[in-house]
Amino acid sequence: MCAEDGPPDGADVTEYKKASHQAPLKGRSEAARFYMYAIIKTGGKQYRVQVGDKLKVESLAVEAGAQVTLTEVLAVCGDEGLKVGTPVLAGATVTATVLSHGRGEKVRIFKFRRRKHSMKSGGHRQNYTELKIEAISA
């Protein structure tokens, strides 16, 4: 079922409950249509996204404020039910806006060899791109 996480903020809970217990997905109310989601793949990782979500993905070579079309859509759940690709859905896209680029938290690395007076310290900060999901089309 697509509506797993509960009603969105401001949505009528009784309308959501009615919609989530109806059998075919086509006759659902507007409260249940907020739950269209997609599973996308970018940067070697998979993300479950809905319209309006903000997420940090591996760094993309795109300017801040630009629109990005993600074509590696693995699955889409919406009015027509769940569609799963093999491995990707043909013609399905997710459109997102690049909000910013940044660097993640520092991960400390410490290598130590006992009895050798040998220590090595280092760190790593992963670059990321923050996206806001604008549209999902199947």
Count all strands and give the number.
Answer: 10
Integer tally of domains: 2
Number of helices: 2
What does the overall shape look like?
elongated
Low-confidence runs: 18-26
Helix content: under 10%
Please report the distance between the alpha carbons of the first and last residues.
17 Å
What does the oligomeric state look like here?
Answer: single chain
Structural class: mainly beta
Radius of gyration: 20 Å
Most strands sheet: 4 strands, antiparallel
- Going across the biggest sheet, name each strand in turn: 2-1-5-6
Mean pLDDT: 85
Order of helices and strands: HHEEEEEEEEEE
Strand percentage lies at: over 45%
What's a quick, concise take on this entry?
By secondary structure, the chain is mainly beta.
Descriptive keywords:
single chain, 138 residues, mainly beta, 2 domains, four-stranded antiparallel beta sheet, 2 helices, Large ribosomal subunit protein bL21, ribosomal protein
Question: How would you portray this structure in words?
Answer:
- It contains 2 helices and 10 strands, in the order H-H-E-E-E-E-E-E-E-E-E-E.
- It is mostly beta strands and 138 residues long.
- It folds into 2 domains: 1-35, no CATH class; 36-137, no CATH class.
- It is elongated and about 65 Å long.
- This protein binds to 23S rRNA in the presence of protein L20.
- Belongs to the bacterial ribosomal protein bL21 family.
- It comes from Sutterella parvirubra YIT 11816.
- One of its GO terms (biological process) is translation.
